[in-house]
Amino acid sequence: MQAANNCGVLYLVATPIGNLEDMTLRGIRILQEVDLIAAEDTRHTGKLLHHFQITTPQISYHLHNQGDRTSELIEKLQQGTNIALVSDAGMPCISDPGSLLGQAAIANQVTIVPIPGVSAATTALAASGLDTERFVFEGFLPIKDKSKTARLEELTRETRTIILYEAPHRLLNTLISLEKALGTTRAIVLARELTKIHEEFWHGTITEAIALYQSDRQPKGEYTIVVAGSELTKEIDLSESQVKGELQQLLAQGLTRSQASKQLAKLSKLSRREIYQLNLND
To answer: Could you tell me if 117 and 29 are in contact, meaning their C-beta atoms sit under 8 angstroms apart?
Structure first.
């Protein structure tokens, strides 16, 4: 494919998240036909290319060189070079450094053609058994505790199913943070090693997941976390007695009084401070 403005085309090529048989025929053809492959890790992608006998040259494009490399690749595209962008696994530009190149391509009127394929988020969601009608993808939570707490507080009233990514060495810390924000009984699915030999889906509550990994079990592999949405339904102008009942339920789920008061202030004429000061012993 050649764009009308004589620029090259930027192809966003999805790659397998584990099982090489998930590579699409179209994806293989595009990787064979383009002039250059921009890869997050050329060694990792090299194994994929070798498996499918693809000899197209590679250039690295990752978080630590994307500043300079983006302008270099845009210049090549403007000169008519067709480039395929791939990440280590899944769809490039989704929770991935490649999004910067995609944005730059659009800004420079370079044609983008997505070559879809497997995604860890939708793969885990489909097999989770949780609601798939409406969902929200949050990717990786912030690493810093303050930023993570703020993000999770935004999700306390999220009624859609929530999808997260997490590295094994941060899994337990993230589960503990989820329990503080969302409560102890929220349903959760931990999916790991997706499409690989040791693929696993663990189902339970957030508290049960914490107990599992506080025992002798060690987190292994990259995790996709699927969390049930909030069941707190929105009511118009909750009465004081209704607010007290909701407050008691949220506190029982593990939310702090401050977090629960902030949530309920949106559903009542009472302010966050007034809700915080309610006497639940009346």
So the answer is: no
| Residue environment code for 251-273, b if the CB has 16+ CB neighbours within 10 A, otherwise e | bebbbeeebbbbbbbebbebebe
The closest alpha carbon to 86, from 41, 34, 21, belongs to 41
What predicted TM-score, i.e. pTM, was given to this entire model? 0.78
Regions of the chain where pLDDT drops below 70: 1-4, 232-237, 282
Domains of the chain listed by start with CATH number: 9-118 (3.40.1010.10), 121-227 (3.30.950.10), 240-276 (no CATH)
Cβ atoms 95, 139 nearer than 8 A: yes
Element spanning 181, H or E: helix 171-182
Number of H helices, E strands in the chain: 11, 10
Angstrom distance (rounded) from CA 233 to CA 243: 12
pLDDT, tens digit (0-9, with 9 covering 90-100), for 228-254: 999 865 445 677 888 888 888 888 878
C-alpha span between 41 and 71 (Å, rounded): 19
User: For the CA atoms of 89, 94, 96, 98, what is the dihedral angle to 10 degrees?
Assistant: 100
Q: Which of 164, 185, 154 is nearest to 262 (CA)?
A: 154
